[in-house]
Design a protein that fits this description.
Rossmann fold; 406 residues; alpha/beta; globular; 15 helices; eight-stranded mixed β-sheet; 37% helix
Length: 406
């Protein structure tokens, strides 16, 4: 069997956890089956893509198509349908002749590769966010409220730009959902995402949690420190709850000034966060670590942390950062929204707090920071759950059964 992995981006460059997962799965599948990957490679400093194709060999062939910021612009028609991407994909598929194509995030690549497949090729898709029903991926309006009617996105001012006339949102939704009807098997890593997308469409979706190569995280050991370190890892953005966490830490700092906060990852909010820290005298207790592309650096951050926080205000799916934190033995404080409650068992592997409630979030963080035995107990339970539920080897076996069933 030959399997093709299709993802809008691919490590070493990443936009989020979806690409990390896609490669981890492809690497595991390639140990027993033929494999190749097709993904974008984004020059965010240019608006117009060059569509230059690079090919290199790892354990399998990887094809990377040169795209640009236009492809990531949810108001650009190329974000959800780019015919050039489709033509390139068709040529690659003719050359590789896959039996199964496994699609991941398509924002940027668009649905064109789905349309470029031969009718005999079986198609599997893993959903990682709400892109197939929401151009912004998040189901959040401009005022950060949760959207419950995707065809009335006036609060987001969504107008898809095409060459000559705007594409109405209902047409985008019809095109994307129509194309997905040709997919043989759709997977959602969280029950939350599955239920919401099924509510907006007539698609049938199977729930299978994501997996990750967790061995390096499982080996992390911690030593007692003079200060307790709180870590937020990943995209440091408003919908991820960055400002909710900063507000919680402002209140925590008034009660216990021994705590330290690290915000590590990509952000477009650097200046605004710096101003917030300065205004609230948090510069000495909050460390900003910018974008990094090093597994070693990530492991070091997790090793130094005592508490991990996922304070999202949107319907998170199955965030890999939570899997990484649990596997490394950290208790997790997460928002009780989306797929997070499916991962964090309140009182057993961490604590849940109401999304957007900085007071409750701060109370949960403070409780863990001041109780070492509780941290260790919840951390051990989280590590056990990660080993049982999120090991990529066990996960890949489940995915292989999906392929074989088709």
């Amino acid at each position: 069997m030959k399997v093709g992995t299709i993802s809008n981006n691919y490590p070493p460059e990443t936009l989020g956890g979806a690409e990390i997962y896609a490669k981890a799965l492809a690497d595991e599948i390639s140990k027993k089956q033929e494999e190749f990957a097709f993904a974008g490679r984004y020059n965010i400093w240019e608006y117009m893509p060059k569509y230059d194709l690079s090919v290199y060999k790892e354990d399998y062939w990887v094809y990377r198509l040169g795209l640009a910021s236009m492809n990531l612009d949810y108001k650009a028609v190329n974000n959800f349908f780019d015919p050039v991407v489709g033509l390139v994909a068709r040529n690659i598929f003719k050359k590789e002749r896959p039996d199964v194509l496994h699609f991941h995030n398509l924002a940027g690549l668009s649905v064109a590769p789905l349309l470029a497949t031969h009718s005999k090729v079986k198609k599997v898709m893993t959903l990682h966010d709400f892109w197939i029903v929401c151009p912004k991926n998040t189901l959040l309006r401009k005022d950060a409220s949760l959207c419950n009617d995707i065809l009335k996105c006036l609060g987001c001012d969504v107008r898809i730009k095409a060459s000559f006339i705007p594409v109405p949102l209902w047409l985008r939704h019809k095109v994307v959902s129509g194309v997905l009807k040709g997919v043989d098997h759709i997977i959602s890593p969280s029950k939350s995402l599955k239920n919401i997308v099924e509510g907006f469409t007539d698609l049938k979706i199977e729930h299978i949690p994501n997996g990750l190569m967790i061995d390096d995280y499982m080996r992390i050991q911690r030593e007692e420190q003079d200060t307790q370190n709180v870590l937020m890892l990943g995209a440091i953005l408003p919908h991820k709850g960055a400002y909710v966490l900063l507000d919680a830490f402002r209140k925590i700092h008034l009660l216990d000034n021994s705590l330290r906060l690290t915000l590590a990852g990509v952000t477009s909010e650097w200046d605004r966060i710096k101003n917030y820290m300065r205004a609230n005298r948090l510069e000495d207790v909050v460390e900003m670590v910018g974008w990094f592309n090093s597994e070693k650096k990530k492991l070091q951050l997790l090793e130094k942390a005592d508490v991990f926080v996922q304070p999202s205000i949107w319907y998170e799916n199955n965030p890999l950062t939570v899997i990484e934190a649990m596997a490394s033995g950290l208790p997790v404080v997460g928002s009780g929204i989306g797929g997070i409650p499916e991962m964090v068992e309140n009182g057993r592997t961490g604590f849940l707090s109401k999304a957007g409630d900085s007071r409750e979030l701060g109370e949960k963080i403070l409780r863990l920071a001041q109780d070492r035995r509780l941290r260790e107990s919840l951390g051990r339970a989280g590590r056990e759950k990660a080993e049982k539920t999120y090991d990529i080897r066990k996960h890949a076996s489940k995915i292989m059964k999906v392929y074989e069933s088709l």
